[in-house]
Structures are given as C-alpha cells and as structure tokens.
Automatic annotation (TrEMBL), chain A:
<keyword id="KW-0489">Methyltransferase</keyword>
<dbReference type="InterPro" id="IPR023576">
    <property type="entry name" value="UbiE/COQ5_MeTrFase_CS"/>
</dbReference>
<comment type="function">
    <text>Methyltransferase required for the conversion of 2-decaprenyl-6-methoxy-1,4-benzoquinol (DDMQH2) to 2-decaprenyl-3-methyl-6-methoxy-1,4-benzoquinol (DMQH2).</text>
</comment>
<comment type="subunit">
    <text>Component of a multi-subunit COQ enzyme complex, composed of at least COQ3, COQ4, COQ5, COQ6, COQ7 and COQ9. Interacts with PYURF; the interaction is direct, stabilizes COQ5 protein and associates PYURF with COQ enzyme complex.</text>
</comment>
<dbReference type="InterPro" id="IPR004033">
    <property type="entry name" value="UbiE/COQ5_MeTrFase"/>
</dbReference>
<dbReference type="GO" id="GO:0008425">
    <property type="term" value="F:2-methoxy-6-polyprenyl-1,4-benzoquinol methyltransferase activity"/>
</dbReference>
<dbReference type="InterPro" id="IPR029063">
    <property type="entry name" value="SAM-dependent_MTases_sf"/>
</dbReference>
<keyword id="KW-0808">Transferase</keyword>
<dbReference type="GO" id="GO:0032259">
    <property type="term" value="P:methylation"/>
</dbReference>
From TrEMBL, chain B:
<protein>
    <recommendedName>
        <fullName>Ubiquinone biosynthesis protein</fullName>
    </recommendedName>
</protein>
<dbReference type="InterPro" id="IPR012762">
    <property type="entry name" value="Ubiq_biosynth_COQ9"/>
</dbReference>
<comment type="function">
    <text>Membrane-associated protein that warps the membrane surface to access and bind aromatic isoprenes with high specificity, including ubiquinone (CoQ) isoprene intermediates and presents them directly to Coq7, therefore facilitating the Coq7-mediated hydroxylase step. Participates in the biosynthesis of coenzyme Q, also named ubiquinone, an essential lipid-soluble electron transporter for aerobic cellular respiration.</text>
</comment>
<keyword id="KW-0831">Ubiquinone biosynthesis</keyword>
<keyword id="KW-0496">Mitochondrion</keyword>
<comment type="pathway">
    <text>Cofactor biosynthesis; ubiquinone biosynthesis.</text>
</comment>
<dbReference type="Pfam" id="PF21392">
    <property type="entry name" value="COQ9_N"/>
</dbReference>
<feature type="domain" description="COQ9 C-terminal">
    <location>
        <begin position="132"/>
        <end position="203"/>
    </location>
</feature>
<dbReference type="InterPro" id="IPR048674">
    <property type="entry name" value="COQ9_HTH"/>
</dbReference>
Length: 311, 237
C-alpha cells in the first residue's frame, strides 16, 4: 500500500511538473518547487506538512526513542555540543528546533556551574572584608544564579513545545527559559539579538536550509556563533555498512515497537541519508555569510558539529 | 578545516586582523581573569562583539599568550632598532657586549611586570606539547634578534653556543623574576648581571683553555718528535 501511494504521488508530481512546464514562468502556481521527503519526491509545501505530522505523532515518545535508537549516546553528543559552546554567564542562546529542551537544559546547567565557580573565586578574594560586606555580597549574587543568561527555545511544532514545557516543569527549570513557536525559515525575532544560535538534529528537517542559515545569520549579534549538531556522512566504509544495516533494519522496527509508528522512523533514517555531507554543508554555511566555519566529526562522522561566526 | 567567504574590499578587515584586535583588547583583562577564554570574551565585548566570539580561540588561552609574547618581541626589536640608530648617528655610545645583553634582557623582562602574577600559568601553558613549536620559535627568534643588534657576526660554531648561552640566561632570569618579591625586582637584575658576567668569563676561560690546549699540543708534538728522533738514531746505530 505504501509503495502504491508513493507511485501515485510521484505521478502527481510529474503531472504537476508537466503542467508547470506548460505554464512557463508562472512558478508555484500548480504544485510548487520539488524537494525530497526521505527517499520520496514531494513539493515543498507537502514536505513541511508531512514533517509537521511526523513530529506531532512522535512528540510524546521522542526522548524515549532517542535513547533507544542511539543507545543513550545522543546525550553525550549534546553534552559535547554545549561544552564546545563554552557559554559564559550573560549569554543569550537561541535554540531552534529545540523541541523537548535537551540543549536548553544543558545550557542552563553549564552556565549555573560556571557562575558558581566565579562566585567562589570572588569569595576567595573577599578574605579581608567584614562579615557585613560578605553577607551583602551573598544577597546580591543569589538573585543572579544564572548571571543574566537566557535561552529561548524555538520550535515550529506545538506538540514538541508542549512536551518540552512539561519536562521543564518536571525537572524544575524555570529561570532564564522561554518557549516560542516559530519557523526556522522565518524567525520571529529582531536582527542582532542572540549570542549563540544552536540547532540540534533539526536542520535536516528544514525544507529550505539556505533560508534557515540566512535567518540564523540575521538574528545573531556581531561576533555571535552558529552551532549545528546533525547526523552526517560516515567516512569509514566498514562502519558505514554496519550503520546502514542498523539504520534500515533496526530503527524502524524500534519505532513500531516503542512508538507505534514505523513510517516516521523510516522517514528519519532516510532523511539522514539525504542531508548534505560535511564539506557541502560547510560551504552552505559560508554562503550564508559566516566566517571561520569548521566541523568536528563525532563517532567517525555519524554525527558532526558545524560551527561558524558572524564577524 | 577553516574557510573564508565573503568579498574583500579595501578597508575590509581580514579574520586574522580581527582576531589580533580581540586578543590585544583581551590583554587588559588578564590580571583579573588570567590567560583564559574569559579574558578573551571580555576583550571581544569591549570591541562590541558578542562574548561568543571567544569560541574562535582555544579554550586554554594559548593564542592569547602567544600573541602577547609575539607583541613583546616586536616591541623589543623596535627598541633595539632605535638604540642602534642613535649609535649610528653618533648620539649615543656603543655599549660593551655584556651591558648590551643585560639591558636588552631586562627591557624584555620588564614587559612582563603588569602580568607577572599570572605569568607562571602562561609559562606552563606554553610548555604544552601543542604549543611548544610556536613558543620555541618565538623564543629563538627573539634571542637571534638580540645577538643581531649586539653585533654578532659569527658564522661558525660560536653562533650556536652564543644562542644557547643567552637562551639559558633568559630562561633562568625569567624563572627568578617570577618568585622575586624585592622592590622593582632588583634581585632579578642582580642575578641577571651575575649570569651575564659568568657567560663572559666562560668565553675567556674558553680562550684560555684553547691557548693552554695549543701549548699542550705543541709540547706533546715536541716530545713525539724528540722520541721518534731518538728511536731512529738508535735504530740507525
């Protein structure tokens, strides 16, 4: 049935294409520009819709599925991302496609511990102050346990944001955290606002990656940093074969068993294959205007962290 | 893995120039934060950039220290160049070698004074394996510079000994300076004076050794000639 559906959709797309050729330069009238959804070919509008529905359906089981698919290693990847960011207190972070808040919570923890260390260092220098003065400094420092750092979690999907907010409440995160519904291709923020922009495992679900990169450039302050954590191409051929085997045979099965949704996880695995490799993505980031763009492979390229600066 | 995009116009600053500006601005925060990414972040902020720009550099502060050392070496070269010009114009007297070395090393070490509290941290970072090539390079070119302005024209093995000697003097004086608490580091300068004097004497001793050596060799040669002559005459007889 799925195969049949695919063929039908491909026929539609082709007919749409023929129509478009007839209409000449009138673009977007019939079906819009074509793109991929996993290994299928669809229009951009269809893709956005389908991806919205994928995440709507997996939202509640998103974290559980992440843990079972990557055997918990995604936690390490996200830790590495935040360590690489090395945020100082006072940093304003925009986490796009941040859905269930993994990066946001790690950011808050990191900044909190940096702030504590700073306060301890200050106290050591306060050895010759009177008790009164020390007590006063305790008071004013307590109110700034995050040191004015803030993270805005932006996601296009209401369900994912809902799950994220619930998690935050459950884990006790409230200070310095806000949730915004928004589209990475068209962010609801002003120019030059944020110190760091992160997008973890989100950009391959964006339909027009170039637009998302341009928006990232726009909302970052001068000197701001772009960080992207995403599945990428594996260089080692033996590992690549094992990885393919695992991806196509095991993951959709896990999806069916744990989340009751084979198709969404089939899409996920296919979308990883469709995402441009490290060097190509690096070139796209440079095209958006970023400087000092480089990438770091994790686990031989299963995942890569791309970084760029707005200078 | 680094790339560079964008157009280049005439007054467009290159990435490197911007990085140098950030590091220079960061130096003023070193006494408070040490040679760390925090100092670099503060420096970036004074230039109107986000603190996240500090992510461009190593998190251990290596680039900041290397930048500082390179800046100090440049300042030293300029200083020595100016002094040389004065001597050439006849407005100053040419210093004897030992005084020249003393003054040059002292001038260079005095540049550390504003950062002397955090300097031990810097030294240990410079000794990290990934920094050794660059720090060694900077050190040797600085020593070369000093000898060049001191009027060293040698092209023989003396070139190596002179560099080794001065490097030794510089490094040991630097270590003494770090834990020196005397007013205006006078203990350090006295130590420096003694080391330079030692080095000069060693040079003389080397000459003495050489001439003594020559005398010994001549004596041995004479003895050998006498002995062989005695042998041949005995053989003849």
């Amino acid at each position: 049935a799925a195969a049949g559906l695919c063929r039908y959709r491909a026929l539609l797309a082709r007919r749409g294409g023929a129509l478009r050729a007839l209409c000449g330069s009138v673009r977007g009238l019939a079906a819009g520009p074509e793109t991929h959804f996993g290994f299928q070919t669809v229009t951009e509008e269809e893709r956005r819709e389908k991806i919205y529905r994928v995440f709507e359906s997996v939202a509640k089981k998103y974290d559980v599925m992440n843990d079972s698919m990557t055997l918990g290693i995604h936690r390490v990847w996200k830790d590495i991302l935040v360590h690489k960011m090395n945020p100082s207190p006072g940093t304003l972070l925009l986490d796009v496609a941040g859905g269930t808040g993994d990066i946001a919570f790690r950011f808050i923890n990191y900044v909190r511990s940096v702030r504590e260390r700073q306060l301890q260092r200050k106290l050591r220098h306060h050895q010759n102050l009177s008790w009164q003065e020390i007590a006063e400094s305790y008071q004013e420092d307590k109110s700034k346990s995050l040191g004015d750092s803030q993270v805005v979690v932006c996601d296009i999907n209401k369900e994912m944001l809902k799950v994220g907010k619930q998690k935050a409440q459950h884990l006790g995160y409230s200070e310095g955290l806000s949730w915004v519904l928004g589209n990475a291709e068209e962010l609801p923020f002003d120019d030059d606002k944020f110190d760091v922009y992160t997008i973890a495992f989100g950009i391959r679900n964006v339909t027009r990656i170039d637009l998302a990169l341009q928006e990232a450039y726009r909302v970052l302050k001068p000197g701001g940093r772009f960080l992207c954590l995403e599945f990428s191409q594996v260089s080692n051929s033996l590992l690549s074969r094992l990885y393919d085997l695992y991806s196509f045979q095991v993951i959709p099965v896990l999806g069916e068993v744990i989340a009751g949704d084979w198709k969404s996880y089939q899409y996920l695995v296919e979308s990883i294959r469709r995402f441009p490799p490290q060097e190509e993505f690096k070139a796209m980031i440079e095209d958006a205007g970023f400087f000092k763009v480089d990438y770091q492979n994790l686990n031989s390229g299963i995942v890569a962290i791309h970084s760029g600066f707005k200078l | 893995y680094t790339g560079q995009g964008g157009q280049e116009s005439e007054d467009y600053e290159s990435e490197e120039q911007l990085q140098h500006r950030i590091l220079t601005a960061a130096l003023e925060f070193v006494p408070e934060h040490g040679w760390t990414a925090e100092a670099i972040a503060e420096g970036a902020k004074t230039l109107g950039l986000s603190a996240a720009a500090a992510g461009m550099f190593h998190s251990d502060g290596s680039e900041l220290i290397l930048h500082f050392v390179s800046q100090c070496n440049t300042k030293l070269s300029e200083l020595l160049e100016q002094e040389q010009k004065l001597v050439q114009l006849g407005e100053a007297e040419k210093k004897p070698t030992d005084q020249f070395l003393r003054d040059a090393v002292q001038a260079r070490l005095r540049m550390l004074i504003p950062y002397i509290e955090k300097w031990p941290q810097a030294l240990s970072i410079l000794l990290l394996p990934h920094n050794i090539p660059s720090s060694l390079n900077l050190l040797t070119s600085m020593i070369d510079d000093i000898w060049h302005y001191a009027g060293d024209q040698s092209t023989d093995f003396n070139w190596y000994t002179r560099r080794a000697v001065l490097t030794g003097i510089y490094n040991t004086t630097e270590l003494v300076m770090i834990q020196d608490s005397s007013p205006d580091f006078e203990d350090t300068w006295r130590f420096l004076e003694n080391r330079v004097a030692d080095a000069m004497n060693m040079g003389n001793t080397a000459n003495q050794v050489q001439s003594t050596g020559e005398a010994v060799v001549q004596g041995l040669m004479g003895a050998a000639v006498t002995v062989s002559y005695a042998e041949t005459s005995r053989a003849v007889r």
